[in-house]
Write a structure and sequence with these properties.
Strand content: 25-35%
InterPro entries: AAA+_ATPase, ABC_carbohydrate_import_ATPase, ABC_transporter-like_ATP-bd, ABC_transporter-like_CS, P-loop_NTPase
CATH topology of the largest domain: Rossmann fold
Helix content: 25-40%
Number of helices: 18
Pfam families: ABC_tran
Number of strands: 24
CATH superfamily of the largest domain: P-loop containing nucleotide triphosphate hydrolases
Keywords: ATP-binding, Nucleotide-binding
Number of domains: 3
CATH class of the largest domain: Alpha Beta
Protein name: ABC transporter ATP-binding protein
Organism: Paracoccus broussonetiae subsp. drimophilus
CATH architecture of the largest domain: 3-Layer(aba) Sandwich
């Protein structure tokens, strides 16, 4: 008889009304392994882990943990069973110290104040043991994204954990920080921990995992040992078809300058320097990438270019005309398209349907409006053409966009912006939170737009995405552009060091490399 698995989630069903989000999922995890969970957006990964961590309750099914039935009603109860989860979006209070975050909600305030010395000692002990370099007295908002990631992981270890769930843990890390995290995961397993690792990055999954389960259509369709598979097979299992693992691209043919940024200085909403003397150009027929760890000025650069953040000094030109200080509406009226960093906050209106979202920028202009009246037939035809061209999975154009997966929402945003036939395309975090199939399609579309003569500025924390499609890559750190590199993967370590603040020894802004077929970020 086979030994009972450390964790078994058996025939788990979960629905919200008529929407099935977990359709008979069965998942087995062995003790002391790193078990990767892969799947497209909407495949059911997050729902399954939310059930395991006590955030959601299943409609039916059984969970067995350490040989005993497990019934959870809250994350607090999950933690009591030594199940911990590090969420993709950090759960930290920014104006508190590391130690204060660790003791929140853990008992009497007076007792905790009295015991803070022991809390600090325990944090230092765990930090030294796992090489996490976490200071108990550091204030969260003063830490980099990578440091906050370490704080989150140590927080789970501080409270005690046997089963650790990591949800997209490398999404905002430099290559060096990612390497350290993967090493840490193996160290935790050697210490007897069990890890469920959710990721879209197949190279990381192959490097660190013992076994892999692939989810599709809200159920587990395949489980395999890592040595018995490869990225191409995993991609096919996730999407249900073969996926291009390399994006063939020809040499770019840059034309005249479309966007010119000179000596740009911008302050953040807190009044701190967010951009310092930034200079860059983007030419017709090229994709220029901006690499960097989140929080180093990329967001403010995009907002300033789109007219959403005031410019302190400097100049922005589009097609040779000064657009510095223009309002978002004035910039929107020009040959300028913007795919924003956060599609929910700035790209779409979740309560509206696809047709309404498809005309957000031009609802008052022909052919979608005439004499103040919306032209329903033209709007429907336009939206249907976008759905067909970008293969957006939806019942029809009347579906509320909030019901679509993240990848299909992003496709609608990209489709709407490109339909404007712009000279310049500003794109922030193009593939964040979307699955491998959508990544493949959208990156191919960026290359098609480049070859059609568009000028594209692509801001991303995903280096694979930048290496896959960019012709030049600028690296930002501490609100400045530290240097420029060609899309050559042999320069990956150099880019990572620049992202961490190390200036290049030799300026390489004039280097030109012949583009080679590059792996996609999937």
């Amino acid at each position: 008889m086979n030994a009972q698995p450390f964790l078994k989630m058996d025939d788990i069903h979960k629905s919200f009304g008529s929407l099935m989000v977990s359709n008979g999922v069965t998942l087995e995890v062995e003790q002391g392994e790193i078990h990767a969970l892969l799947g497209e957006n909407g495949a059911g990964k997050s729902v399954l882990m939310s059930i395991l961590f006590g955030i959601l309750r299943p409609n039916s099914g059984e969970i067995t943990y350490k040989g005993q039935p497990l019934h959870l009603s809250s994350p607090r109860e999950a933690r009591r069973h030594r199940i911990g989860m590090v969420h993709q979006h950090f759960m930290l209070v920014p104006n508190l110290t590391v130690a204060e975050n660790y003791v929140l909600g853990q008992g009497s305030p007076l007792r905790l104040i009295r015991d803070m010395g022991a809390v600090h000692a325990r944090i230092r002990e765990l930090s030294d043991r796992y090489g996490l370099d976490v200071r108990p007295d550091a204030v969260i908002e003063d830490l980099s994204v990578g440091e906050q990631q370490r704080v989150e992981i140590l927080k789970v270890l501080f409270h005690g954990v046997d089963l650790l769930i990591l949800d997209e843990p490398t999404a905002v890390l430099t290559p060096q920080e990612t390497d350290r995290l993967l090493i840490l995961m193996r160290e935790l397993v050697r210490d007897g921990k069990t890890i469920i690792f959710i990721s879209h990055k197949l190279d990381e999954v192959m490097r660190v995992s013992d076994r892999i389960s692939v989810m599709r259509d809200c159920r587990v369709v395949h489980t395999t040992r890592v040595m018995d598979t490869d990225p191409r097979e995993l991609a096919r299992l996730m999407v249900g078809r073969d996926v291009l693992m390399e994006l063939p691209r020809g040499r770019s043919k840059p034309g005249e300058v479309v966007l010119s940024v000179s000596n740009l200085n911008v302050q953040s909403e807190l009044g701190l320097p967010a951009l310092k003397n930034v200079d860059l150009t983007v030419r017709r027929g090229e994709i220029v990438g901006i690499a960097g760890v989140s929080g180093n000025g990329q967001t403010e650069l995009a907002l300033a270019l789109a007219g959403l953040l005031p410019v302190e000094s400097g100049r922005i030109e589009l097609d040779g005309q000064d657009i510095t200080g223009l309002s978002p509406a004035q910039i929107n009226a020009r040959s300028f398209a913007h795919v924003p960093e956060d599609r929910h906050k700035m790209g779409i209106l979740l309560p509206l349907n696809l047709a309404e979202n498809a005309i957000l920028h031009c609802h008052d202009a022909a052919p979608f409006a005439r004499r103040g009246m919306l032209q329903k037939r033209q709007i429907i035809e336009h939206t249907r053409s976008l759905i067909r061209r970008f293969r957006i999975k939806t019942p029809d154009e009347t579906e509320r966009i909030g019901n679509l997966s993240g990848g299909n929402q992003q496709k609608l945003v990209v489709a709407r912006e490109l339909a404007r036939d712009p000279d310049f395309i500003l794109v922030s975090q193009l593939t964040r939170g979307i699955d491998i199939g959508a990544i493949e399609f959208i990156l191919q579309e960026m290359l098609r737009q480049r070859d059609a003569g568009r000028a594209i500025l692509l801001i991303s924390t995903e280096l694979e995405e930048l290496f896959a499609v960019c012709d030049r890559i600028l690296v930002m750190c501490h609100a400045e552009i530290l240097g420029e590199v060609p899309p050559d993967r042999s320069r990956l370590e150099e880019v990572g060091l620049m992202m961490a603040g190390k200036k290049p020894a030799v300026e390489c802004a004039q280097e030109v490399a012949t583009p080679v077929p590059a792996k996609s970020s999937c």
